[in-house]
Design goal:
This protein is 29% helix and 25% strand. α1 crosses α4, α1 runs parallel beside α6 and α4 crosses α5. It is an alpha+beta fold and 381 residues long. It has nine helices and 14 strands. The strands form three sheets. A seven-stranded mixed beta sheet has the order 1-11-13-14-9-8-12, with no helix packed on it. A five-stranded antiparallel beta sheet has the order 3-2-6-5-4, with helices on both faces. Strands 7-10 form a two-stranded antiparallel ribbon. The radius of gyration is 27 Å and the shape is elongated. The protein folds into two domains: 119 residues, D-Ala-D-Ala carboxypeptidase, C-terminal domain (Peptidoglycan synthesis regulatory factor (PBP3), Domain 2, Sandwich), CATH 2.60.410.10; 158 residues, 3-Layer(aba) Sandwich (Beta-lactamase), CATH 3.40.710. β2 and β3 form a beta hairpin.
């Protein structure tokens, strides 16, 4: 394994760490989507009661069905007596109703409709119990390892559990995989057939705070406390964050705003190496050229503390010497960038140009040189 230290050319990078953030939430997870950087994790892998935040999984299942063509936005679902009887926050659906899929999406996001969740579960899987099984299967398939579902709505149940990390992973998926439906999360008001005027406003407090928020879902039960899965965009950066265990709606709103402000102010997205930049060179064994340039294919943009000042240091790592032939653009090495108080960033490096096999004389000369070097080393020892 060959390791070579490099100094990246950006002069604004960091010896100063970001100011530590101590959230009032019992559990939290904060994530920068462009760089894939986790900015904060507090009890993030603990399986906790998610309350209505677990409705995001029901929406994920519905969005998948829409994308696969199994249902359409104008399809209608029947309302069962079980759905009609649901307590808590609802759309006030009756058994004679035939709400469309689009109305149910709005009812779940804006009204936090427990009845709407049951309607979706029964419409997609025949029963809520069968739907919960499918939720569990899908959760495992998309990497949500600390989540279990017993129902579609987040109604209190010992087996209804999610970690803050899993909720964050789910939110990132909803944003990235379903852009055609994500806009529903920014709706501030929805009233189905004029039945719930007092429940027509979206409970997400961030939507009206002017911080670039456009989703996702609140949750509250006595066991879970007050929680929120949120996302916001500022200056081209999108963050996703999850909080749980707050005391009341006011504390939830204030703490969520504080987290978003911290995430945007304390970190900056910087380009440390433009696409095509040569980062280092590597030796080539038995090649027409003795060395090959190692470059980045895309702009290397990383998140750093905003107050950073010193040059950023990295290390090029590869197994070498490299053996010809080498194709242009072939992945040969990794650039590992050290960022103060954050996880290292690893970027692939590719061959700047092709290197063919050397002719007989080149290979003979290289081999003799290697032998001579080895002999000298043994004599020296």
């Amino acid at each position: 394994m060959v390791r070579a230290a490099v100094i990246l050319a950006l002069a604004l990078l960091a010896a100063f760490p970001a100011r530590a953030f101590d959230t009032l939430a019992g559990a939290a997870w904060v994530y920068d989507m462009e760089t894939g950087t986790v900015l904060l994790a507090k009890n993030a892998d603990e399986a906790l009661p998610p309350a209505s935040m677990s409705k995001l999984m029901t929406l994920n299942m519905l969005f998948e069905a829409l994308k696969d063509g199994r249902v359409r936005l104008d399809d209608t679902f029947a309302v069962s007596s079980k759905a009609r009887a649901m307590g808590g926050s609802t759309m006030f659906l009756n058994e004679t109703d035939r709400p469309t899929v689009e109305e149910l999406i709005k009812g779940i996001i804006v009204n936090s409709g427990n009845d709407a969740c049951v309607v979706v579960a029964e419409g997609l899987a025949g029963s809520e119990e069968e739907f919960a099984k499918k939720m569990n299967e899908r959760a495992r398939a998309i990497g949500m390892t600390k989540s279990t579902f017993a129902n579609a709505s987040g109604w209190p149940h010992p087996n209804q559990r999610m970690s803050m990390h899993d909720l964050g992973v789910l939110a990132v998926r909803l944003i990235a995989d379903f852009p055609e439906y994500y806009g529903y999360f920014a709706l501030t008001e929805f009233e189905h057939d004029g039945r719930a005027p007092d429940n027509r406003f979206n409970r997400n407090p961030l939507l009206s705070m002017g911080i670039g928020a456009d989703g996702l879902k609140t949750g509250h039960t006595q066991e879970a406390g007050f929680g929120l899965v949120g996302s916001a965009v500022q200056g081209g950066r999108r963050i996703v964050f999850v909080v749980s265990g707050l005391r009341d709606a006011t504390e939830r709103a204030e703490e969520s705003q504080r987290i978003a402000t911290w995430a945007f102010r304390e970190f900056a997205l910087k380009t440390v190496a433009p696409a095509g930049s040569r980062i280092a060179e590597a030796d080539v064994w038995l090649g027409a050229a003795s060395r090959v340039g190692l470059m980045v294919e895309k702009d290397v943009r990383i998140l750093i503390p905003s107050l950073a000042r010193d040059a950023l240091k990295g290390e090029v790592v590869y197994t070498g010497p490299l053996e010809a032939p080498i194709e242009a653009g072939q992945k040969l090495a990794d650039l590992v960038i050290a960022v103060p108080d954050m996880e290292p960033v690893t970027v692939p490096l590719v061959a700047e140009q092709a290197v063919g096999k050397g002719g007989f004389s080149t290979r003979l000369r290289t081999a003799l040189g290697r032998v001579a070097t080895r002999v000298m080393a043994e004599v020296g020892s």
